[in-house]
Amino acid sequence: MFNRFITSPLLKNSIKLLNDKKQLIIKRSYSCTTFQNKNETTDKITNDSSTTKFGNVITYPQMDVVPKKPKICIGLSGGVDSTVAAHLLKQQGFDVTGVFIKSWDEKEETGYCTGEKDFQDAQKVAKWLDIPLYHADFVKDYWNRVFVQFLDDYRNGITPNPDVFCNREIKFDLFIDFAQNLGADYIATGHYSNLRYQQDGSVRLYRGLDKNKDQTYFLCMTKGEKLAKSLFPLGNLEKKDIINYALSLGFNDIASKKSSRGICFIGKRPLPEFLSQYMPVEPGRFIDISRTYEILQQHKGAIAYTIGQKANIHSVHGKYYVVSVDYKKNIVYVCPVHLASHYLETSTLTLRNFNWINEIPSTLKRENVKLEARCQYRHRADVVPCQIEFITSETPDVEKGLTYKITFPEKQKSIASGQIVCLFDKYSDKCYGGGIIDTVETNKLPI
User: Fold this and answer.
1) Which residues contact 413 (CB under 8 A, 6 or more apart)?
2) Lowest mean pLDDT, pick from 57-66, 151-160, 228-237
3) Which residue in 8, 66, 274, 402 has the most C-beta neighbors within 10 A?
4) Residue 78 and residue 254: Cα distance in Å, rounded?
């Protein structure tokens, strides 16, 4: 039924059989396909559109000659992306093992757990694919390595992005260790990004084909050596095709599941309500800086607001936006939409804790020299031109690492400290890495 998705015109470049030995040489940076015996020829391979789309999608790194199929542990979440990724890996010859990753215990908060339904879906997929499924409990690790920092950032008036650090600390660190203990050669996930493997064993990270679903932003703080142990089967596919493919496999329920948005452990709850379980969140004042500091109404806690956010103020007409937050005094300063751009615009920001996926570009190793690049300062925001340069300091902060300055030729707006900047090559979709926004220069507020 699914044979049309298996064969590939690149087969002869991907796999070579060693004489009469049933051993395989996996060639670097080619597309993986189903393994065929040497007496089968590539002359009979079809070139229909479905094969082109799904048969040539998985690139993989070089491996030593092995007398077995490469073993891959895939993060199986019960969602459509990981389901299709697992199916493609299985159909294209890999020895696949599923791993359901648990990083948050909803029962402790609500008495019920939506993650149990996801695990049940993952079990259904694993049973249908006839692959083993393991349950990896990283709840304590997530709490200590991601969530504690998330709370500290909010207490310090910083807007964090825990999903970025979940990737770095859990999926591309602990999960890799877990997979290697199971004997896996690589891990795989359903991320919409691309990896290109190099002869020296390193890897380059690129944006996915589907720019609307591209998740490179969430991977830019991940170490290059960890990405080199990973596969992204969906990097050259679009979401609509993934859904249609899942439907063709009979996974109607999974294909119809809504993609998760926002911070995973918060779900649909208002942020103040969630944060109040872990820290004091007190009502405070919305103050309009355009009306001689008129108090508009109460908010639910300044700690839950970030610069550039829309302020839902029911006592006034028109849209208002947050332009500043005084967390110590619990005050949120706002202004009407027609004035917001003036106070939210910036052409300069600084970055700390920068993660270079590969080596630092030689240009940046010299002082006062700028590298022309592009960047994305919010997920799904446009990738915009910028310049980056290294800033020297007489008293460098060991915890923050080297400091870099980003300059935009055109002003940008609504950029908040604590968020991530993902840096790209000026001319291509190659990702250099990412850093945490430390400071943002904006027009001075009348407060």
Assistant:
1) 308, 340, 341, 344, 345, 346
2) 57-66
3) 8
4) 7
From the list 32, 73, 166, 422, the catalytic residue is: 166
Beta strands 345-356 and 193-197 are unpaired
Establish whether 220 is a catalytic residue: no
Assign domain 3-255 one CATH number from 1.10.8.60, 3.40.720.10, 3.30.1490.270, 3.40.50.620.
3.40.50.620
pLDDT, tens digit, for every residue of 52-85? 466 555 666 655 444 467 899 999 999 999 999 9
Beta carbons of 179 and 73 less than 8 angstroms apart: yes
The helix/strand/coil state of 350 is strand
Break the chain into its structural domains and give their ranges.
3-255, 271-341, 345-441
Instruction: Please name every residue paired with 319 in a beta bridge, in sequence order, or none if there are none.
Output: none
CB 314 within 8 A of CB 297: yes
Residue with tokens 């859904």: 243
- The domain 271-341 having CATH identifier 3.40.109.10: the answer here is no
Helix (H) or strand (E) holding 100: strand 95-102
Q: Distances from the Cα of 315 to the Cαs of 65, 136, 213, 297, 318, in angstroms?
A: 70, 48, 37, 7, 10
Catalytic site includes residue 335: no
Candidates 32, 113, 220, 264; catalytic one = 264
Are 134 and 99 in contact by the 8 Å Cβ rule? The answer is yes
- Do β-strands 310-311 and 320-326 pair in parallel, antiparallel, or remain unpaired? antiparallel
